[in-house]
Amino acid sequence: MSLPKVYHRFSLLSLHSPKTLFFSSSLPLAVKRLPSPPLLRAHSRRFVTGKQFKAKSAMASSRFHLVVPVNALAIEDGGNGSGSNGAANATASVAYDDDLESASETGYRLPPREIRDIVDAPPLPALSFSPLRDKILFLKRRSLPPLSDLARPEEKLAGVRIDGKCNTRSRMSFYTGIGIHHLMEDGSLGPEKEIQGLPEGARINFLTWSNNGQHLAFTVRLDEDDGSSSKLRVWVANVDTGKARPLFESPDIYVNAVFDNFVWVNDSTLLVCTIPLSRGDPPRKPLVPSGPKIQSNEQKNVIQSRTYQDLLKDEYDEDLFEYYATTQLVLASLDGEIKPFGPPAIYTSMDPSPDQAYILLTSTHRPFSFVVPCGRFPKKVEVWKANGEFVRELCDLPLAENIPIAFNSVRKGMRSINWRADKPSNLYWVETQDGGDAKVEVSPRDIIYTQSAAPHENEHPKILHKLDLRYGGISWCDDTLALVYESWYKTRKVRTWVISPGSENVNPRILFDRSSEDVYSDPGSPMSRRTPAGTYVIAKVKKEDDGDTYLLLNGSGATPEGNIPFLDLFDINTGSKERIWQSNREKYFETVVALMSDQKEGELSINKLKILTSKESKTENTQYYLLSWPEKKACQITNFPHPYPQLESLQKEMIRYQRKDGVQLTATLYLPPGYDPSRDGPLPCLVWSYPGEFKSKDAASQVRGSPNEFAGIGPTSPLLWLARRFAVLSGPTIPIIGEGDEEANDRYIEQLVASAEAAVEEVIRRGVADPNKIAVGGHSYGAFMTANLLAHAPHLFCCGIARSGAYNRTLTPFGFQNEERTLWEATNTYVEMSPFMSANKIKKPILLIHGEEDNNPGTLTMQSDRFFNALKGHGALCRLVILPYESHGYGARESIMHVLWETDRWLQKHCAYSSDVKADLNACKDNAEGTVDSQSKAVGAAGGVQELANLDDDKFHSIRRSLL
């Protein structure tokens, strides 16, 4: 259930692959749909009309003098309460007022202005460098999408969600425009040239460069009158002129982007996945089923699967999946020539060989499955010539329903089939020797094979290397050098082997043998250079004074003081290292992003080395620099504004403290701008975290991250409450350790509580957190953590916020998170870890939030429904918010703003100004009359202290100190 760490910053693209990925502003890449809003499933089903909202706001204004007037809100938000991010067409009702007791009303709400302004800040562009590193694209993005995008109909089939109207994956983010900048000799950027000729409102996806950097290819879709999007068409743009045009003259050729989309075969030809022209209407669901739904295991096979969602349910689903996923490949040249390529099939990937002579095609086919997603369906891999001539079938793997749930278990047969990056058209792949079952002891466990694309009649696959752990990838260089990686989760062991692919007489040797958890011993990863064929191989660097050849190791540089990234010259023969660059450890956090002097073949001269670096600090957002040798002069190439200047002077500190069993813990403590503990006293505090599993106390005690990293704030980040004058303890380490033969989860509750106690004691000791006003929260596995802490450590926290969690582990009986034992193998662990089983112990207020369409394995929306009912059945103070159309991460502006409103209301009511505090405020109200103006007296008398936070900081603290 892991959720990636999210930052409100731009992404860097096309640095190591000719295929460019696309990213939303700060969310999982997905977003879209809309009917009239069913809104939030809380306690009431009534909708808030415009008149009701005005009437309610008028009443609120009569009670609280500081409530924002409705007409003022309309003016500030473009007249419809939708904010300034372009979501003005959203039809969901949106309301905002500061009355903490108005939560029984339905409708989407807006959080306070200070939070809204940060979330609505315009997103920074994504960057993409040209293959020759002479141009940079600024890919422009919109802010949060409206709920109408998510409300579009989607088909949930075989573990994927499909927008049938577009014939793509549903909820795709997109770019709104493309700007081209030349990278000048002095490192500065030339003036922007906009891509011209695109239709108004174009939604751009899947942008890729041609290998020579002269053209861009991308898809374009448009909004239609009914609120849906059109199907995707491929466009190409000339980078020099900036002019764009459709690739196909025919308006009837559309992209099928359910799996792959298109790829450059050479500089003037693309292979495109298209919707077959002969395809008719979608299959219709029969009114009367042909028979019952039957699944059988009469062969007594052992089939254990995690809790997957969106699986096929019946024959109709199978037909529908095949309908949308079937593709006709088409070869299309820039001069307009088109040619069908192969038969229609469900192609899941297509990969040209480095010499552009062959295409590696992967497809899936029947029989499908009702118990596993499409990634385990039968898979066929074939080699074709680039002109459309079939060469051979590499494999046709059967349905894989019975892959064991133990970590490091894999599919039987050929896997990880790829082209060697250092050869014109040589393939390599891996085959397991343990039947794919990680519990089977065998040596070797994996064997790597290699063979030419079109072998001679008697040419057999050649064994490249044998591994006793599980294969983890290869970094190619040439016939004298390749690095092979293997790992084993159970022991956390990782190894790097040095092999000579073209020399059978040279024995492989281990280069690095370490624990994946030991970040202090991480030597870094070899940097790659781009070949003329567009592939990436290990870069070799030569020093002119000694003539030796070195690799460049780019490392994160974990230390007890935090990460200090580095770049080393590494002699692979002797193991000696020379540090040629290191991040500034005092104020900045700098990283090496990419090698920029990689356009030529052969060894790179150290004196002509050029790299792209990023640089940031606690208060300065990321900028990018070109660093050139031998002077090591850095030229800044971006100058992005601070995304939220109102928090520019926030205070950030990486703190260390100790758990009672001796484990060293770390966390990042954030304090609001201008906060002075001696003057302002302890603050309400929000603790937000996510547990992690370890095999040793030493590894769990290591410091990860940097104190100098920029405080990136995503749309649902806990750091938003810095703007509400909260202290935020972000990411306190919650290590769950299982040393030796012990499993980590056997002592989950004990270690969870001990870690939380240590964190709370530390912020109290520092005087920054009021011990009676500490809230805890988390998303996904962090929500699971939150519920358990409220059940088993109620003395630590005043309330909790749990988003998109799983609370009953008996509903995920074949493993969860990093637990690989089944419910029947570890019954007590499953039961004791489940906060659902301890619902009767939860006495502190808990807010549950969940997406109604959560597709993450294990975190079914039902988990929150049933947990809420269990809590309610024991009289707990709880609230459940179900977000229509949202998945595991939340995408629509209305949803996100409402989540922030709910969270802020919960924190204000049950943390910052809990009922006990309100009683104290009312008791001292009369004493405060002599020093507090009439507005603050009205606020204090009504108990609506949240309105104070809408004042400027000085007045806020003046009134607050008077009341307290």
Automatic annotation (TrEMBL):
Domain (Peptidase S9 prolyl oligopeptidase catalytic): residue spans on this chain: 757-911
InterPro entries: 6-blade_b-propeller_TolB-like, AB_hydrolase_fold, Peptidase_S9_cat
Presence of the UniProt keyword Protease in the record: yes
A matching Pfam family: Peptidase_S9
Residue spans crossing the bilayer: none
Keywords in alphabetical order: Chloroplast, Hydrolase, Plastid, Protease, Serine protease, Transit peptide
A GO CC annotation given for this chain: chloroplast stroma
Tree of life domain: Eukaryota
GO biological process, one term: proteolysis
Subcellular localization(s) per the UniProt record: Plastid, Chloroplast stroma
Entry similarity comment: Belongs to the peptidase S9D family.
Name this polypeptide is given: Probable glutamyl endopeptidase, chloroplastic
Species name: Nicotiana sylvestris
Encoding gene (name): LOC104224688
